[in-house]
Fold these 2 entries.
Entry 1:
Amino acid sequence: MMKKIFYIIKKIPLLSIVLCFGIFARLIGAVTLVLPGGDEYHFNEAPMYAAALDRIRDMTEDYEASQMQVATKTVEVKKTEAVKPVKKKLTPQEKLDLIKGYISVKKEAVIRKQQFSEAKKARLASSNGTYIFAHEYPAKALIRPARAKDYGMADGTYTDPPGTTYEYINEGIFAQNNDYYSFQAAKDESYFENALFVGDSFSDGLREYGHMGEKAAFFATESLTVYNIFDVILTYRSPLETFNASLEGILSGREYKKIYILLGMNEMGVPSTPQYREQYKKVIERIRALQPDAIIYIQGIFHVSEERSKEDPVYNNTAIVQRNQSICTLANGHDIFYIEPSVVYCDKKGNMVASYTNDGVHPIAEHYQLWRQYLNEHVIIRYERDK
Amino acid sequence: MAFTDLNFLSRFLPLFIIAFYLSPRRFQTVELFIGSLLFYALGDPQFLPILIALCGVNFLLAKISKSQEGTEGRQWILAAIVFIDVAVLVVFKLLGLFYGMHLPIGISFYIFKMLSYQVDIYQGKIKQVPDFLESCAYFTLFFQITQGPIMRYSKAEFASSKHRMSLIRMENGLKTMIIGLAMKTILADRLAILWNEAVKVGFGGISTPLAWMVAIGYSLQLYMDFWGYSLMASGIGVILGFSPIDNFAHPYAATSIGEFYRRWHMTLTSWFRDYVYIPLGGSRKSVKRTLINIMLVWLLTGFWHGGGLHFVLWGLFLGLFICAEKLFLARFFEKFPILGHLYVLLVIPVSWMFFAPSSTVEVGRFMARLFPLTGKFAGASSEDFITYFHQFSPYLFVSGALCAPPVFKLLTKDRSGVPRILESVLLLILLWIGLYQINISQANPFLYFNF
């Protein structure tokens, strides 16, 4: 008997190994490796996804709880929107809370407030003013996410339940007393000389193909997400220097006046929107703590092409608009601003025009220039030095 | 359903093979037919009726054609059959071209099989009209219906009574399949990322060195992908008792474009030779007629691959080179084979760049980067070449090495000294890596969507 088996194995070793292996794999329960749909799977090539998925797993456990929270928030939003922001004098303690207790921030904020009133006077006195205030909230001060046509393709796993809204954050540290900055065009591109761009392949494209890397510093690479941005080490590039660093390291060691964030396309396949917004908020808070004097720009996720939006359950404009609506509420008009460069690529239905893109997602190299132009036309100027 | 779909590899195929081996011989043809229909329905159920209708019509007309043997009207029956089959193909191609409708899966392949079947019956290469199930099983054979190879009824000993099944054959078939799977998943799918990157950036944004790397990478990717796929199809055929079908014979080692296409997708090239080129007169008539025939065949080949104008341009581009070879180039390269190799390695990657981009405008853009005489460069610098080279060089070198016949011979030569168990373990590792790649791309569809 044994001899016979041995003979067979000798004749057909590959078949026997594959068969034995298949049976063995099933027995030890490694079925997930051979069959599709395995859950407990960690990818060597995508550690950030494993990490992100871990977070979702934790998160989904109390998903219902978070939904209830969202529902209660809806009511609050209506209240805050209906009532005009009340002029409120902050107590020192409140100010400290607002700036998360960072002494340097506090100093800056106090000094700035004095400068504000002086500068405001100066502006009223001369037409050569360098900054503009929008007293009406949110009229001119805040940009709202662009809408897009819904083709009904969005997978409910990745989108909000109907009727979800998010609370607007109205407090900020730079402009106080119900003053809001409004956007204007930059005088020239020296505005970006003390700016840092943080983001995924889009920002990397802006650096490389929009030639923005000649002006500003970039911490951007493919597949960066709000979940992994503080965990990865990658090549930091500025016009003067190039080295490998973490975002924490860069923000602690350098000073920036403007920080542009564009993160979100890679998170589209990671449920859910409240979780994404929460994480985005944490990222902003951490950046703010390390860079107390920087204007933070949140850039809306780029809309995709009509073709993709019609077919893709994950990367479609319905879901993207929802995500943009969630993160735009993090912009307060005081020190954090929402802008949406993707509108320059969109048609009336909110889809990216086909001739601007080959993959339906990224602009092609020649057209990154449009984004750069948009940035030039939408800047916040606080002081002369911000120009 | 593609061969690299885990549902196919881990469910459909093993179950089918087990059922096929366990059942008595007389049921095997039925099983092949039903299994193939099931396979087709799993991938593209809406076009299943068209496939079944075409099978029925072709079988009936073949019967009529055979019964009219020796009469005058027989050629008109053949003309009618050819007209019906070609019309269906052309109508779907045009619908796809103008209305963006997607083609029924594999229609180009099964209609070509039907045409060869009809012509072979007419010419007497198939002596007896096979029975209904046998004909249908031949038309719909599941491991050939989506991407070929185009097996001939007359050549490939389809008759199921001749199925020779044994564990040894199964072993050999499995080996071929694993090699094919590894080529496709480990090499081709990785190289595909390079092409996708170029598309993402837009051809205006890649430097000239990178454009050449992309062209070479695409040439290798297409070869590894298609060769791997053909090996898998051949392996499945061997497991089920058919003779192995060679679809590729080291095309990149050719010394002329004509030779390249005698070695590349051999079943398609020989189909065009036997059913278009030779009936048109081949090269037996005047030189002028030969050249016209060549251009006509290549025009059709271009149209067969896809509807866009750039496919036609691709066909004409290659046709022109083959005409030039017929006239004088071949004689020149016979004297200097090294120059011939260089010529193939230069012309073929360029020709693929007519084939791969999505439209004629894009072809123009790519050509402007390959030969940067006109057009402005929107990219950053030629440093992009270095970045991508670091990322893709291993895949490029391994695929490139596999193109060379000596390397392939070295890998596949019979090593009676080495225990076969060692070889099997190596193949198992390849299978494992292949399945792993498939699994991560399926279980996490976002992996290849890194933005």
Note: Chain B has a mean pLDDT of 86.
Entry 2:
Amino acid sequence: MSDSRTVDAHLIQAARAGDRDARAAILQDLADPWYRTALALLSNADDAREAVQEAAARLLRDLPKFRGDSSLRTWAIGIVINVSREMRRRPRRLVPMLEQEPPAHAPGPDGRAEQSEQESRLRQMLDHLPERQREAVLLRFFEDMSVDETAKAMQCAEGTVKATVFQALRALKRMMEGRTEQQSDSRER
Amino acid sequence: MSRLRDQLQQARRQYESAQYPGDLAQEMLGHRLAPGKRRWGWWVAAGAVAAAICLTLLMRGGTFTPPPLIQPAPQQVAIAEEPSTLLVPAIPEMPEAVAMLPEVENSTLLLPAAMPTMPSFSWFATYDDAEQDQTNSDEK
């Protein structure tokens, strides 16, 4: 951890000094994690791309204010989460995931059916989670962040993260059980 | 819970396959990062950190043991056996009858009879007189 922070410090120092390569390297490294996070939170490829660009602009603007309390990646993920929250609060974007077109990276229709059936089911369930629970699950299980890092990215206490993750997993399990019951009922009929 | 875990793993695989569709650095900075330079900062800094760690470990270790130097094995030279008696030639002896310093009968210093005299620079006076005469004639 300390090594990565040292690396962060070198890059940040160079980026603050106006080194274009350092700035470009930071953005290049964050582009994919940012996009994944935004896509999972916003469920829309265009919105996710917009969120990434907004996050990049904020990072470049706020880089001199970065104190290094967390790693650069944790701080950057926190930025894209904030941007995604703001975008989700826009009324025009409250479109359910099922009604949207699949993102550009999704597999073609031939191989998609079997592979993505369960995945899309889980993503639908994630979509039904409250915002904070979805963020917590995303960071803890998909981004492999620790409780501490998740708390910093979400700007909350570690205890809140633990409780939120617990609630989210419980809700997901209930949703899965409910769906299983629905499926078995429909099969019996 | 294991079923939920399996589904989370599957969803995570799909999640990780998503990539940003474009070049963010180019879009935000108008600056495309050369492929070779993409991670230069990380590599340079990681190398510096690794070097610092190695140096610290070496310093903390106290003694640095260099690899053993390869020294050539001492060669054994066969020496012909000779009688061990050392033959020293006879030391020439100083004859006792010879005096170390020449005998000086008269201890007075041998000085020349007369000291050399300084040569007279009479031409200096001649030159001054001529110059004075020239000045007087000009005034007249």
Note: Chain A touches chain B through 48 residues (CB under 8 Å).
